[in-house]
Design goal:
Blueprint (H helix, E strand, L loop, with lengths): L5 E8 L9 H12 L4 E5 L7 H5 L1 E11 L8 E5 L6 H4 L6 H12 L4 E9 L10 H16 L6
Parallel strand pairs: 1-2, 1-3, 3-5
Antiparallel strand pairs: 4-5
């Protein structure tokens, strides 16, 4: 059972062996090193076991790559809730941020304020190399999350 609430939880996820798809992991690794006041989880995919960590946070920031259709893409920042769930995924091996918020609410009675920060990604080729464009957006995401500039005021 949850006794106290942690501060902001950052969950960085993706596949760091598929080029830019590792952007969420790279950003979360930098955040963990630079912002000790934030709790950081780095994972290859979102799984149901994260629900308790999510429920114990005051705010959750999910960080992942998204396929950018063209140069000139920006960070995608969207508030998310547990209202938009795919019931087939909630108890599966992986799910969406909304699925996990819903599960946290169902199991632990609370789903915190949550945000998804999408980092533009251009190359998903096998390998650990991240494109220069995505590296730029990783730095921007790290700065934004460190400031928590998109918190509700």
């Amino acid at each position: 059972m949850l006794n106290t609430l942690d501060a902001t939880l950052v969950i960085g996820y993706g596949n760091d062996l598929r080029g830019d798809d590792g952007a969420g992991i790279r950003a979360a690794t930098i955040i963990a090193a630079q912002s000790p006041h934030l709790r950081v989880i780095i994972t290859p995919q979102l799984t149901p076991d994260l629900a308790e960590d999510i429920a114990s946070a005051t705010q959750v920031i999910f960080v992942d790559a998204y396929m950018a259709c063209a140069t000139g893409a920006n960070l995608r920042i969207e508030e998310i809730s547990g209202d938009d769930v795919d019931s087939a995924n909630v108890m599966g091996h992986h799910g969406s941020p909304s699925d996990l918020l819903h599960l946290a609410n169902q199991l632990f009675g609370r789903a915190p304020e949550a945000w998804l920060v999408g980092i533009p990604a251009y190359s998903f080729a096998a390998g650990e190399s991240i494109s220069s464009e995505t590296l730029y957006w990783i730095d921007e995401a790290v700065a934004l999350i460190g400031e928590r500039a998109f918190s509700k005021k």
